[in-house]
Amino acid sequence: MNTPPHQWTVYLAGEIHTDWRERIESGTAAAGLPVVFTGPVTDHDASDRCGAAILGEQDDPFWFDHTGAKVNSIRTRTFLKHADIVVVRFGEQYRQWNAAFDAGYAAALGTPLIVLHDPEHRHALKEVDATAAAVATTPEQVVKLLAYAIEGRLD
Prior knowledge:
By secondary structure, this protein is of the alpha/beta class. Helix content is 50%, strand content 15%. The chain has helices spanning 20-31, 44-55, 61-82, 97-109, 126-131, 139-151; strands spanning 8-14, 35-38, 85-89, 113-116, 134-136.
């Protein structure tokens, strides 16, 4: 099957503590897929501090977080709206409420969603999984899903 005439934009949302993004990016490069990746700011400190660093310090922790979340939402909402596919990774560390929000936002936009998590999280993520086009357990499965979706190949 012929490759589509454009690059696909894949938004990588979710946990920032493991190498899952790099594994997907290197796998799609090795497969020669026409993909450009976008995603949130993955520097945890920069993401937390962006509002205060740009708009001024906040004395109240609520407003510190609120301002940062709003600044981050400029990037997140824009990239999610322009994505052809959204991949959301739920990892082992922390409760990733923002990842769940990104999955819901992609679903509301009608953007195809691939959810990535370990099998032990199936029950906790059943509603998120139910909205996904596919649920993967490894970054390599995501690469295979992208190869099939984009080029119709199973190898």
